[in-house]
Amino acid sequence: MNASLRSYPTRGVLDRPRSRWADIAVFAGAAILIWLIVRVSAGMHVPFDENSAPTTVSTDPGELPYYAARSLLRMLLALGLSILFTFVYATAAARLPRAEKVLLPLLDILQSVPILGFLSVTVTGFIALFPGSSLGLECASIFAIFTSQAWNMTFAFHHSLVSQPRELDEAARNLRLSRWQRFWRVDVPSGMFPLVWNAMMSFGGGWFFLTAAEAISVNNRQYVLPGIGSYVATANADSQIGRVLLAIAVMVVMIIGLNVLFWRPLTVWAERFRMEDTESADAPRSLMLDLLRRSHVPGLLGRALGPLVYPIDRFMGLFGLAEHPLYVAPARRRTGDAVFAIVVAAGLIAGTVAIVDYINNSVGFGEVGHALGLGLITLARVIVVLIFSTVVWVPVGVWIGLNPRVSRLAQPIVQVLASFPANFLFVLVAAVMVATGASLQWASILLMALGAQWYILFNVIAGASAVPNDLREAAANLRLPRLLWWRKLILPAIFPSFVTGAITAAGGAWNASIVAEIVSSGQHTLMATGLGAYIAEATRDGDWPRILVGVLAMSAFVVGINRLFWRRLYDLAQRRYSL
Fold it and tell me: FRET pair for 448, CA 20 to 30 Å: which of 25, 170, 218, 479?
């Protein structure tokens, strides 16, 4: 009996070896991080006078590290807000059938509103909220970055909730989990893998609009915040190409460092939440995550915070169990549906009447037709971008996602390319076009692709990485021909992820048109015909009626196409191709 007991490992034998050096490194890193946050955040709350505020920042190269840290802090704060919004909004849309009918179309509209549309409305309000302090302008900038990150993450997390395996739902009901317990023990873990990948992609998309969020030009006013985006905008206006190239180099270093210290450990950690019967023999690794796992610090934090879990669960259990009533009286259900429909219809009618009256009394409906015509031109560019991105990046994404070794090498490169704000290069493109006399009408397609194509690539990588190993091994054992392998395994497996990425890429392309259809180099400004340039001009001039017309036209195109085309593909992916 004793011999048989000795054949089993004792508690802790299979744990990773701990190291004091790892503890020292983790404590030192945490101390440095806290010091940097305190040091950088101190500059976010300084006296501010709207009438005498500076319109440029210093282009001294010595300021670049501080500017880069300020921009990174804004990006991380916006990411935190995006995650919070994603959890609340996506969960409400997935769990409340009536709310879903409003929240998903509203999300389509929010995704279609360009960042300049949000800035033109929110800047004045945030400044008034914090009078005499730069904190109002900081909040406006963070909110603008938030609008470039949140929608894609929300779509991805909502898809993971509605396509959740039935077994998980039944287990949550049988265990009588509260709504709070189900969210943290079922919903978040099951959606963690796509959420992390889409958060990384959305974070990269936020860099693209950093210049617009830090060098704000609305309502005939110019506001700037210290940051690498405003640094590039000032250097561009002064035709300091060398300073722009220096900022690009700093940006690349910062993105690589962020990938090594933050995104790579997070994506490797998210591998534990993949649901499959077999495990890859070549699992991805992260030096930073290995360091944390060899430290005692995570365990100490777990023991310190662990006793709080049960009291919080008990308190949050007041919100009820994670289950739906088995029976609802038909009359009660119909009455609720009717009241909900009346309230929503009343709100829509009131809003529509107010908008129609405002446009009729300002620019007239002839301007609406003009904006829709410009929208058709931009739509053609968006279609070209989507076709190009699909043809080029779907095979590349599948190749990266199915090969852990390739993913380990390619992910930092893809992350740098996706995170790098391509509009930093617009000044160089504009300079070349001014020198050669080239037209922006076609070049704007390339500029839009630089800001939108990565959504498809990242979603395809995430979709291919999530293909269960048992299916891949079965396909290998059956020796499927290459064409059949694509048709029967890969394309159906990645289809839900591709649709999510394509929807977001289309919205990203529309948003990118704002900065791609009008670019500047020094005193030269190039403009392409399109709805993006129309909105950018109206925002710069503070022309509220034209801003409204442009935003409504862009929203009509994006939401209409989503409803008629993308939503049908989304439903097909959920119904037939969800793993």
Answer: 218
